[in-house]
Amino acid sequence: MKRSIVMIITALIISATIIPTPSFASEVKVDLAENAKSAILIERDTGTVLFEKNSDERLSPASMTKIMTMLLIMEALEDGKIQWNEKVRTSEYAASMGGSQVFLEEGEEMTVDELLRAISISSANDASVAMAERIAGSEKQFVKMMNQKAKELGLKDTKFQNATGLPAKNHYSSARDMAILAKELLKHEKITNYTSQYESYLREGTDKKFWLVNTNRLVKFYPGVDGLKTGFTKEAKYCLTATAKKGDMRVIAVVFGAPTSKERNKLITEMFDYAFSQYETKQFYAKGDELGKVTVEKGQQRNIKIAAGESISLLTKKGEKMDDVKTSLKLNKHIQAPIKKGDEIGKIVLIKNDKVLSENSAIAAENVKPASWWTLYKRSFSMFTKLQ
User: Fold this and answer.
1) Which residue of the set 91, 123, 174, 200 is catalytic?
2) Of residues 66, 183, 245, 282, which has the active-site annotation?
3) Which of 29, 175, 176, 257 has the fewest CB atoms within 10 Å distance of its CB?
4) 209 is in an annotated binding site
5) Which intervals hold domain Peptidase S11 D-Ala-D-Ala carboxypeptidase A C-terminal (predicted)?
6) Does 317 qualify as catalytic in the annotation?
């Protein structure tokens, strides 16, 4: 019996220039973030580090902690565990949070959409705890989820004690870990619909109408900035994890421990200016681009579409000549039903001079259920008769 597995492994010769691996940052002497305790600047698609300063130092992240909180909210939405229009009740504990808040009252209900706006725009501690309790049952259980996710992402210098970033012993992160966390959050494209808003309102139509103003002023004053999260406590000083996009290039900048909010914004602005003036991104595939089809073993349908799991790019130094880069699609050996849309079924590999530059996920673009016994029998019988 012939077994036909259609594995579309195409190699395209594409002109592009790459910068060296993330260690490149240590080779470039750039005078940035002088007044920060630590900082890092990365290009989002490739993860290439363009600048770093004390990037692995463990420091208090303050409300940048909420990047993880928002990530777990977005994952719960994607998994269908919560719904955008679902109303969430505020507990006495959530209502008791100090610091930045939207003054939720015990028993007050807001939708997930409203609470996420409160968190992402106004850095609301009460909204963060209300969502933590809805997702995990308690903030304590939610913190366990936060630390488990940090472990999955390989965050070696991060440990959380709460969902808000309020001062707590043994609650820390690093600039590098925050950049990785921001990179993961940005995979959920809807999040910037929230973090990019400069202002919004809660409780409209009531005498308790509440004005939300983004704590990240750069979303208004720096073109292309659409997130992510500020932070401040007396211990942490002024912190910010920010992202900006121009053309195909998105960068993430993190600052810990700036002396003032004005200086924090200045440092981030200088890092963005440096990135966009010196580099550009060459995109090969956008997230969701179809790459071809592959045969599925024992599936209701024999072939499924393959797509790019993320935007696949290389970073180029502006003005440099382009060299040959090959891309190839390498699929898993056995692709068998059931398959869920979004499952990784292979890798898109970028290669230069026989050296692998990067590997990116190739995913199933549709669901495939297992074929019935009768379907498999008919296929086998049909294949047998063709061989006669």
Assistant:
1) 123
2) 66
3) 29
4) no
5) 279-370
6) no
